[in-house]
Amino acid sequence: MKLLLDSHVLLWWWCCPALLSSKVQALLQALDQPVVVSAATLWELSRAVENGELPELAPVVWELPQLVLDEGFAILAIHAQHSLLAGQWHTRGKHPQPDAADRCLLAQAQSEGLSLVSSDLALRGHGVPVIW
Question: No. of H helices and E strands in the chain?
Fold first, then answer.
């Protein structure tokens, strides 16, 4: 099982792991399976810094890719297939429409056979395994 981390999971892993479920904590501590972070997550965090929502990340925003790699996680690029699938996500079912970053994560998880790690209930029911 390969894991794709939602942005809040990455942040909580770094700053306050107690906010993570015990299952997620165990999975990330063990590193028995590959863990990836989407380039969309880095974009989302950078945007949050720019908007003033995460000022504490401002000093390290340009170091985020290296910090991810230092954790032993990989960075998943956004490929054309991911973009096309994310753009069409609104046609999939009757569930609430996820935002652009979440659609990208869902598309990447589906395309790459990843389990999405997130506490976001809106990501459930879209045909992608979600772990919390």
Answer: 6, 5
The position carrying tokens 């909580």 is 12
CA of 102: how far to CAs of 5, 65, 92, in Å? 11, 19, 14
Q: What's the token pair of residue 51?
A: 């908007």
For residues 38 and 49, is the Cβ–Cβ distance under 8 A?
A: no
Rounded to 10°, the helix 39-50/7-15 angle is 70
pLDDT digits (tens, 9 = 90+) for 57-111: 999 999 999 999 999 999 999 888 877 766 676 655 555 566 778 888 999 999 9
Domain extents for the chain? 3-123
Determine whether domain 3-123 maps to CATH 3.40.50.150. Answer: no
Alpha-carbon gap, residue 113 to 115, rounded angstroms: 7
Whole-angstrom distance between the N-terminal and C-terminal Cα of the chain?
A: 14
pTM greater than the 0.85 cutoff = yes
